[in-house]
Design a protein that fits this description.
The chain has 13 helices and nine strands. Helices cover 47% and strands 16% of the residues. By secondary structure, the protein is of the alpha/beta class.
Length: 331
């Protein structure tokens, strides 16, 4: 396919206070091997109080950029605002906390045209957000099967395959006219819910390992805990607003945390002890393998990052389930 035949693409980018990372993201857009006159870039800003808008505006002479205000600040609201103001034949959902392979847009469009899918996406390579042992440990954990289970777009695949969801999806613009927009009540997991609707409507989602993006993970355990507590919370709490496509792997952290908590009742103390020992043995195994490859200075940061990920997600899920059953708004 010649570049003259390539369709117009709208890139929708929700952002808020991303001054630190958005320059890397914009640089990766500048390097895209896709016609600049066929790239429409729409930033939807959640009223940033840093220089996010200023950084974006400094790139306006390099490609077509617009900034839309998002007074609600929530991601699904931003996505819908961007899509409704877009004019491309295809829409790609992006994050300003990433950087893109230079053929990212081209690979998405070629894949969606070749496969005749309704949505396509690729793999995420997780990088540390700063040069510290714990930031690197967190990045290792988010690329490991013990950390994220069978999340194929994080652990990687070696061939194109049909899946239930993808990160940073590239959609036919007509999809939103057919199945509707993102559920604005879902503060998290709105992409999972949309893709479930898409699959249940008989449409196709394809994951292509040639499509690559870089995600900059949280740089310390405190922010990592907070992020994954929120992610875990919306697994069950989101059931108030939609049928969410969470799989069994999403419930495992909650089951693990419950297995520790039941030890409060003495008859179940052996269960908690067994669960604690088993988890640590598995954690040590995967941590050792990572440290053997990356360096043993990362042993403790990686070991604690696994604990932080699973505890925070599990505690968040349990709290979300309590709020779902007994009521209450948000976290």
């Amino acid at each position: 396919m010649s570049y003259d035949e390539l369709p117009k693409v709208s890139l929708i980018v929700p952002c808020r206070n991303e001054e630190r990372f958005i320059g890397k993201f914009l640089d990766s857009l500048c390097n895209q091997k896709y016609p600049k006159d066929k790239m429409e870039i729409i930033f939807v800003d959640g009223r940033s109080d840093d220089d996010t808008k200023g950084v974006i505006q400094r790139y306006r002479d390099k490609f077509l950029v617009s900034i839309i205000d998002n007074p609600m600040k929530f991601t699904p609201v931003a996505l819908n605002l961007g899509i409704k103001n877009s004019s491309g034949d295809y829409v790609i959902i992006l994050s300003s906390h990433t950087a893109l392979k230079d053929t990212f847009i081209y690979d998405n469009i070629k894949t969606i045209l070749d496969t005749k899918a309704d949505c396509v996406g690729g793999i995420i390579k997780t990088y540390p957000s700063k040069d510290s042992l714990f930031a690197k440990g967190i990045a290792f954990v988010l690329s490991n099967k013990f950390g994220v289970g069978n999340s194929l777009f994080r652990t990687g695949i070696d061939k194109l395959m049909e899946v239930d969801t993808v990160p940073f999806g590239c959609y036919k613009r007509s999809v939103f006219d057919r199945i509707g927009y993102f559920n604005e009540k879902l503060i998290r997991n709105q992409d999972l819910e949309l893709n479930l609707r898409l699959k249940n409507s008989g449409y196709k989602i394809v994951l292509n390992p040639q499509i690559e993006s870089i995600y900059f993970a949280r740089g310390d355990l405190k922010s990592f805990f907070k992020q994954n507590f929120q992610n875990g919370f919306w697994v069950f709490y989101g059931l108030k607003f939609a049928k969410l496509p969470f799989s069994f792997r999403h419930t495992i952290p909650a089951i693990f945390v419950l297995s520790l908590l039941v030890g409060i009742y003495p008859p179940f103390l052996p269960v908690s002890i067994a669960s604690f020992i088993a988890y640590n043995l598995v954690n040590l195994y995967f941590t050792f393998n990572i440290a053997k490859e990356k360096g043993f200075k990362y042993f403790l940061p990686t070991f604690l990052s696994f604990w932080t990920l699973h505890l925070s997600y599990g505690i968040g899920s349990i709290w979300g389930l309590i709020r779902y059953i007994f009521g209450g708004k948000g976290v």
